[in-house]
Write a structure and sequence with these properties.
The complex is a heterodimer.
Chain A: H1 2-11, H2 15-42, H3 44-48, E1 53-58, E2 66-67, H4 70-75, E3 80-88, E4 91-92, E5 102-105, H5 107-113, E6 117-118, H6 121-129, E7 133-137, H7 138-144, E8 151-156, E9 161-173, E10 183-186, H8 187-194, E11 204-205, E12 207-212, H9 218-228, E13 236-240, H10 241-251, H11 253-284, H12 286-294, H13 299-335, H14 347-374, H15 377-382
Parallel strand pairs in A: 5-10, 7-9
Antiparallel strand pairs in A: 1-12, 1-13, 2-11, 3-5, 3-12, 4-8, 6-9, 7-10, 8-9
Helix pairs in contact in A: 1-13, 2-11, 2-13, 2-14, 11-14, 13-14
Chain B: E1 8-19, E2 22-34, E3 39-43, H1 50-57, E4 65-70, E5 73-74, H2 80-90, E6 91-94, H3 106-111, H4 121-134, H5 150-162, E7 168-172, H6 180-197, E8 200-205, H7 208-211, E9 216-221, E10 224-231
Parallel strand pairs in B: 3-8, 3-9, 6-7, 7-8
Antiparallel strand pairs in B: 1-2, 1-4, 4-5, 9-10
The chains are: A alpha+beta, B alpha/beta.
Chain lengths: ~375, ~230
């Protein structure tokens, strides 16, 4: 017990040094947590994907459409439960800075395929009734302070012109991993307006979203869909929703790798800083450790004192860093909500933070402990005075 | 008392240190005994090897050759771990610079070696209070070393050294950093411990006044023990 008391008092013996070291660890752990959260946010779409959903797109490229006529053919394939479809609209609200995903979808089937988008029954009914209606995620509505019944105009970039929509409903994510920044309106409305102006897109969709009866049949159903449209004018490429999302992420994988690398460099730097602090501290106390040894305290006691002190400092910094990661992430997520609609500190990140703090504490104490344990008592005593 | 075997028996002791490529002999063929309850002073000029000899007797350094037996235990044959256990129960240390742990109170400093025993917290408290009473510092037990004078710190160090009731008490220049009055108090305390508790004390000093407090003085010169014994008036 006295050893524990000594350990804690040693940790804060040099208050300024301890405070600065803890501050350094706090910032490092917070930075590490934030960078890991950025990586998680990058993969948020992939993580939120369902194993029982498939996405079918044009085999040449996503920018080429598929005929709406494929819907019924896909529905007839064994293993397919529900088929929905949509088109990336790519509209801008007032300014290009106000980016959010806006899609023309088949509302009825979309809500079946994506049960994680929850919406009040009366709002859904109002949306289904109004061809110019739209629903938007909670975060998006809060961001632009829209109210039900408000008319919102998007400027079409892919489909030129000003497009007026009326807010009929607000959807919420079933959990925190669901993107609440999407803008969904009726594909029929889009199709109706472009029929005469953009004939190549008339009766065409950007992609199909397919719910399969059982996740283990996903591969079989994918092959069946692509087989159905083989040698047609618009051949399809069907993949799981996860693979579809991953194909976007992989385009920017180098950035993700760089962020991951930087997050580990941050930990490595703080490890060197704490190791230096512990080496300095141990060097100053080598005489005290020698005194303890003369009294009969062994290597394990010295190990407990140095390792314990190192862990007290790193865990104090680690816990503060974790606590501060939350407000920092909220601020960061708010500022970058256009790029990262989902920006949550995951428990996995907290565990990584704790592991990083522990690792720094243990590694920083290794060399000083070895030195303090192995030094001859007589040599240690000579350092006093 | 004369029939009792010596508490410390040193036979043909040799010790040298390596300095770069050179081997520097520090102690040569040291043989002598210390009787139980004796207060012996080891004197000699700087570099004569007196502190090294004390370290070897206390089991904090290893001999090159020869044997040391303390309380019937051949300490030169003990492993590091065995030596640590042995020191914990058989040796009390007093150093020149007190060497108290600055973040622990006087009470906690004295309690420190008792943490290696199986004593209960209550027993430890009783022992510590008794040791601090012995050195007349009962009223300063909650003070940190920085709040005590040099003499008081050394008295706490003495309490820490005797709290485990060791077989021998070794003191390396315990008055070297004290003013004359404090030094007298510390030496008087050591005499009291020797006379009243029968504690065997080995004192290393280069101060003749301090050495005179011991019953017997052995002199070391250039690593050799001077065969002339000085019996003090005590």
């Amino acid at each position: 017990m006295l050893i524990l008391k000594l350990l804690f008092r040693n940790a804060f013996r040099h208050k300024l040094r301890a405070a600065l070291t803890i501050l350094g660890i706090t910032i490092a752990i917070m930075a590490f947590g934030l960078l890991r959260t950025v990586v998680s946010a990058w993969y948020a779409g992939v993580e939120a994907s369902s194993a029982s959903r498939l996405v079918t797109r044009n085999a040449i490229s996503l920018i080429f459409p598929l005929p709406i006529a494929y819907k019924d053919k896909i529905r007839q394939i064994d293993g397919v439960k529900t088929v929905s479809y949509g088109t990336w609209f790519g509209g801008v609200y007032k300014d290009e800075k106000n980016f959010f995903p806006n899609l023309a979808v088949d509302a009825q089937s979309f809500m079946h395929v994506y049960p994680e988008f929850t919406i009040a029954d009366d709002e859904l009914r109002a949306f289904l009734k109004d061809r110019k209606g739209f629903v938007a995620g909670r975060k998006l509505v809060e961001k632009f302070k829209w109210k039900l019944g408000d008319t919102v105009t998007l400027k079409g970039l892919i489909f030129p012109g000003d497009w007026d929509f009326v807010l009929r409903g607000v959807y919420r994510g079933r959990d925190k991993t669901i993107d609440e920044t999407q803008f969904l309106f009726h594909w029929d409305y889009l199709n109706e307006r472009i029929k005469n102006k953009m004939t190549s897109w008339a009766n065409q969709v950007g992609f199909y979203m397919i719910d399969v009866t059982r996740p283990d049949r996903a591969a079989e159903v994918s092959m069946a869909i692509d087989g159905t449209f083989k040698n047609s004018l618009a051949e399809t490429l069907t993949e799981t929703e996860k693979a579809f999302q991953m194909s976007f992420v992989s385009m920017t994988e180098a950035i993700v790798m760089a962020i991951q690398l930087v997050s580990f460099v941050v930990i490595f730097i703080i490890m060197a800083v704490v190791a230096n602090t512990m080496a300095m501290t141990t060097r100053e106390r080598i005489g005290e450790y020698a005194i303890l040894k003369t009294m009969g305290f062994g290597g394990r006691h010295i190990l407990a004192l140095i390792l314990g002190e190192s862990l007290v400092i790193t865990l104090a910094g680690g816990i503060l860093g974790i606590i501060l990661t939350y407000p920092a992430a909220a601020l960061f997520g708010h500022k970058l909500s256009n790029f990262f609609p989902i920006f949550n500190v995951e428990m996995k990140t907290v565990y990584l933070d704790i592991a990083a703090a522990l690792l720094v504490g243990v590694i920083a104490a290794l060399v000083p402990t070895r030195r303090a344990v192995s030094i001859r008592i007589a040599d240690g005593l000579r350092r006093i005075g | 008392m004369d029939n009792e075997p010596p508490i410390v028996e040193i036979r043909d002791l040799k010790k040298s240190y390596r300095r770069g490529d050179h081997i520097v002999p520090v102690l040569e063929n040291i043989t002598f005994d210390i009787q139980r309850g004796e207060f012996v002073a080891l004197m000699g000029p700087s570099g004569s090897g007196k502190s090294t000899l004390l370290n070897l007797i206390a089991g904090i350094d290893k001999v090159d050759e020869g044997a040391i037996r303390v309380g019937g235990v051949e300490i030169t044959e003990l492993s590091e771990t065995e030596l640590a256990h042995w020191r914990a129960t058989h040796v009390g240390f007093i150093f020149q610079f007190y060497n108290l742990i600055p973040v622990l109170t006087a009470f906690e400093n004295v309690e420190l070696p008792l943490n290696l025993t199986r004593m209960s917290a209550k027993e430890r408290r009783e022992h510590v209070e008794m040791a601090l009473r012995l050195v007349n510092l009962s009223d300063r037990m909650d003070h940190y070393p920085g709040q005590l004078s040099g003499g008081e710190q050394q008295r706490v160090a003495i309490a820490r050294a005797v709290v485990t009731d060791p077989t021998i008490l070794v003191a390396d220049e315990p008055t070297g950093d004290l003013d004359r009055k404090s030094a007298e108090e510390v030496l008087d305390l050591m005499i009291r411990l020797n006379r009243e508790s029968g504690m065997t004390i080995i004192l290393v000093t280069h101060d003749p006044r301090a050495a005179q407090k011991a019953q017997r003085i052995r002199r070391l010169e250039k690593g050799f023990l001077n065969n002339a014994h000085s019996q003090t008036s005590l």
